[in-house]
Amino acid sequence: MTQIYDPPHPGETLREDVLPALEITVTDAAKQLGVTRAALSRVLNCRAAISPEMALRIENWLGVENGGRADAWVAQQAAYDLWQARKAGAPTVQRAAIPH
């Protein structure tokens, strides 16, 4: 299985790619998304995850045809979260005894 190497936080994608492409400020993006500037800033600065609700807001904002699919944003967040958990070290558990 190929392992993804250090996937970006989806907030980084929004900050580095989406907002500049739209030539929009954080304040204006927050207004259009219907969230506070502080809430969006936390996502953009990788201090908060993109929730399913935020992913749906992005989908409605950008449109599916422009890369705004909610499931893609949630998948990117999950990939980032899983990578961070793997870096932190897998918890020690007893392997299940699966009968053959």
From TrEMBL:
Keywords assigned by UniProt, alphabetized: DNA-binding
Coiled-coil regions, chain positions: none
UniProt-listed Gene3D superfamilies: lambda repressor-like DNA-binding domains
GO MF annotation list: DNA binding
Keyword Zinc-finger tagged: no
SUPFAM superfamilies linked: lambda repressor-like DNA-binding domains (SSF47413)
Source organism, top-level taxon: Bacteria
Residue stretches making up the HTH cro/C1-type domain: 24-65
Pfam families in UniProt: HTH_3
NCBIfam families noted in UniProt: antidote_HigA (TIGR02607)
Protein name from the UniProt record: Putative plasmid maintenance system antidote protein, XRE family
Organism (species): Methylomonas methanica (strain DSM 25384 / MC09)
